[in-house]
Amino acid sequence: MTRSDVGRDTSSAWLLVTQREVVVRALNKSFVVGLLVSLGLIAGLMAFFTWQGSRAETFTVAVEASDTAAAATVAAAAAAARAAADEAEESGGPGAERVEVMVLEVTGDDAARAALEDETADAWLSGGDAGWTLTTLRQPDLELVGLLTATVREEVVAENATAAGTSPEELTAGSELATESLDGDALDPGLIYLTSFVLAFLFFMGAVGSGAMIAGSVIEEKQSRLVEIIATAVPLRHVLAGKILGSSVIALAQNLLFGVVGLAGISFTPWAQALPALSASMVWFVVFFTVGFVAVAALYAVAGALASRTEDLQATTTPLMLLLMGIYVITFSADGVLERVLSFVPVASIVSMPVRVLSGDAQWWEPVVSLLLLVAFAVGAVLVSERAYRGALLQTGGRLTWRQALRAEA
Amino acid sequence: MRVIRPVRPPPSVEHMSPQHTDGPDLEVRDLTRVFGAGPVRAVDGVSFTAPSGLLTGFVGANGAGKTTTMRMIMGVLAITSGEVRFGGRPATTQDRRTFGYMPEERGLYPKQAVLDQLVYLARLRGIDATAARAEVLDHLDRLGLAGRARDHVEKLSLGNQQRVQIIAALMGAPRALILDEPFSGLDPAAVEGMVDLLREHTARGVPVLFSSHQLDLVERLCERLVVLKQGRVVADGAPADLQSTGTVRHRLVVSGDAGWARGVPGIHAIDVDGPTALVEAVDDTAVQRLLTTALERGAVHELTPVRPTLAQIYREVTA
């Protein structure tokens, strides 16, 4: 018997545990299926926004062949609609949906009415000196009414102005309402809200999903007493570190994947303009999530260790689940001062700070400070968890509380 | 008359080679574990030695403290008082990392392939990947599991899971083996295969401590025996020594009815069945008196000391 193998090198045990966690997770069927379903949902959502963004509502307006004034007005309205749509596209954001106006020339009023009846036309515009009338089968579409009203007014004002020896410009001079926004680059608030919702959702799903996995992997080893074999071979600290790192790697990879697919999808939607801002926000989210998840994973590992059988997991993980769910609900709905406060509160900041970065109301130093707070919290959580994990893991007599775990001697 | 000499158990292969080597012994000294506020002394001042190169059997009723003792030896349960020594000095965490351990309750990763998880467990013990793989495959082959290397553990029968579990304990040339019920649930052929494996380790000078409820097995295999009762050691020694300290009985076979043996002074007839009598003698003079009387009465076919089986000793010491 040589003594050369005394005190075998176990310094890289954490790496082995990490590798195993990652491989086992990546090969887990329900994990892979869940991932694919989530990716499918994201891709589907993006496809929906793309479709909605590119969708044009087409109105067919009937005019009587002899009614040249009406024909001219509809043509002008169609041009105005095209111009508005182009402008919206340039400024980014989903804006109003595109409107297209088509002319359907009919001969005689009866033909016009027939076109309405059989729905080949959405409306019938008749004009001239007798006054302007828009006839529809049912309630008229307000967007069409608005567009045609503005066009008719413009045309009539122009005519009246000419008749009065002046020009429409002179008549309407000084009546423009200039718009000026203090926050000129502000993004569509809808987009910000949607982002906060998506980030909160990613956080919640990632934290709870990966958390449950780590708790399950801890109890699997505890219940089978594998942990006794492992604990006699390597320091338990390494096992915990490996589990946290392994889960974090998976959670990070998962969020990166979601982020890339989501951002790629957004580039096809009318929000493509906001891509740089969204990407920055996403990067912050991934960084925050990765750091924050370390804390969540550590707490979930303890929840796993507190149980004595798989059946206990429900009870030991519920408090964490509720906490995360609370953070989820409060972060996606928070705004104003509450959001500002939450963006510095560890774990909630994972969602709130990236959203504030996106909306542009965070100073450059704010995410940095918030991240440092989160790092401090994660370190604290890992240290406390490490003690509780070691205390609880080798106890075999039923479910434990945090207090018992922290007090326990191996 | 055929024989008048002690009948020893036939020398088995297992009993021929093993002897105490100069490798490190595993000792426990005054090991005590108190549970709860009660308090329950699950293990109460237990001392014994599992000598290097020998198989030490650890027996006792359920709840006698075997598992608690083994868990304290492995350091997975805190010791209330006393100590575990290895190679003549207190066992360190580093020492324990080189021990092979098979816990009481069985379990492995149910959804991982046999080969993968054994390699993982071996690598945790500091063996490099290639060597771990070779060693695992070798062990699987020897225990007849070569074809199951890629199967998930949950697909294996309990007996096969047990073999996998034992392989996990034997990886990486452990310097001591602490095995809690390693033979339970194994068929006789598997037991033999396992014993051969354990013998290889004792031949390296490794102390092997294993618990078992199968006394016949323990009797056949062990060079040392420790009997625990309610947390205390009630017997400790070589099985043969323990057997000679137990009450020796004699069997007498005569040509006629042996009922007269009941009346011989100093002889307590336990059982008389026609020409055969099983007796306990107060001393050797009484045995001689029994023989003389028997010869006076006719032919004596057999007078044999009957060594108590381990089961009897066990019943006596744990009664």
UniProtKB/TrEMBL annotation, chain A:
Looking up Pfam families in the UniProt record yields: ABC2_membrane_3 (PF12698)
- Superkingdom as given in the UniProt entry: Bacteria
Task: Kindly list the GO CC terms recorded for this protein.
Answer: membrane
One Gene Ontology MF term: ABC-type transporter activity
Principal place where this protein is found? membrane
Q: Which residues form a coiled coil?
A: none
Protein name according to UniProt:
ABC transporter permease
